[in-house]
Structure formats: structure tokens, C-alpha cells
Amino acid sequence: MATGIDQAVGMSLVGFSLLLFTYYSVWVIVLPFVDSDHVLHKYFLPREYSVILPGIAAVILLLCIGTFTAVVIWKNRKPKKVD
Fold it and tell me: How many Å apart are CA 67 and CA 27, to the nearest integer?
């Protein structure tokens, strides 16, 4: 069973993910259809970053997965028997 702290951490992660998804969706889907002089544009980064930031996040994620896999393989390898 999850404790109260586990549930609070889980709910905060879900809330953060929902906030990030909403921000990114508005940034990528809605903002191109809004006039460039509208006040909404000051709350968002330039559009180039909508491609750059997820790309950097994907590279970091792949590096973490690769590092984890390498560490697990390294720790589980068996030494060769010497005859």
C-alpha cells in the first residue's frame, strides 16, 4: 500500500505533468494562430525552442537509459573461468 507521502509525490508528479502538457500544447498548437503582438506571446519562449527543448530532453533520456543498461550489464557479467 502507498503511504500518504507516496500519494502526495505521485499526485504532484501528475499535476506537474498535466501543467507541462497543457503549456506545451498551447505553445505549439494555439500560439501560431494568435497575432504576434498579442499579450499571450510574452508568456512563452520563441517557437524554435518548441523543437529544441524536447530534442534535448530525448537525448538526455536516451543517455540515462543507455547508462542504466550498461551499469546493469556490467554488474551482472560473470567472470571467465580460468582452466
Answer: 32
The angle formed by the CA atoms of residues 62, 64 and 70, to the nearest 5 degrees, is 100
pTM: 0.69
Tell which phi-psi region holds residue 78, choosing left (phi > 0), alpha (psi between -120 and 50) or beta. Answer: beta
Measured CA to CA, the distance from residue 19 to residue 24 in angstroms comes to 9
CA-CA-CA-CA dihedral for 56, 21, 29, 32, to nearest 10: -60
As given in the structure block, the three cell numbers for residue 29 are 498548437
Is residue 1 scored above 80 in pLDDT? no
Q: Name residue 74's amino acid.
A: W
Burial class of residue 41 in the structure, from the number of CB atoms within 10 Å of its CB (0-12 exposed, 13-18 middle, 19+ buried)? middle
